[in-house]
Amino acid sequence: MFYLLSLLTAFFLFGFSGPAFSQDPSPGDIAILPEVTTPVEMSNSDANRIVCASTIEDVIFSKEKGLSVHFTKRDAFLKFQILKEDGQLTYSTTPAEVFVVCGDHVFRIIAIPKRVPSKTVRLTSGGADQIKSNLTLMRGLPYEEKLLTLIRAVYTDQIPESFTVTQTRKVIDLFRDIEVTLTRTISVEGEGLMVKEFVVQPRGSHIELREKDFLKVDLALRPVAITIDRLTLTTGQSARVLIVEQRGEGN
């Protein structure tokens, strides 16, 4: 049952302040699991980043392979050595084995140097820890506050590592006066909630938007909350529409 149609008003009353979540992964990020040897193509000209969801305890690698690694609490930065001889730059082509101790898990990466842009590798412990993190994050919150917390995280792009972000670009031909594009889906495993983010643009010179206009099964099967960041659009403007949907799992 949809009962938070005016969530936009409540959202602004609560404000944008909240937990300091990390930024959501970009489409080019690579996620790997522990105890699995994973080959990863990395830039042999720029620094590459390894992100741990908890704390990096240690990084073991062979310096003889022309590799340098520096790490802090949650991030490690890996760079292949570049040699300069007779004015010419020589980039590494030798793969290097890297072990990262992230929390209670060990990740084994075969870093393959390539002439590619800098890569970000995210170390994930899989679905069980992901669900546990989400349940911990939402524990004790009333249902309405869970929805507000989720929308606030997505709206401000402060999305926890444990949320699953799927980037997409799907145009949904549903309205005569506006163009609707699904840009990403954010799932909260274990809580049975997901957020679909849409970008809306007018096809004419002026359009008024209402939350209830987006109560369409083509957009969400079981919506529980909708918020729009701009209700009036003119030519060249766009609005973000966030629809929270119940997935039928968890609480």
Q: What integer is the average pLDDT?
A: 82
Structural class category:
mainly beta
Order of helices and strands: HEEEEEEEEEEEHHEEEEEEE
Shape: globular
Work out the radius of gyration.
22 Å
| Percent in strands | 35-45%
Q: Into which percent range does the helicity of residues fall? A: 10-25%
Strand segment count: 18
**Alpha-carbon distance between the two ends:** 15 Å
Secondary structure tally, helices: 3
Strands of the widest sheet, in order across it, are 1-11-3-6-5
Number of domains: 2
Largest sheet: 5 strands, mixed
Question: Spans of 5+ residues with little confidence (pLDDT < 50)?
Answer: 1-27
Q: How do you describe this structure in short?
A:
The chain has 251 residues and is mainly beta.
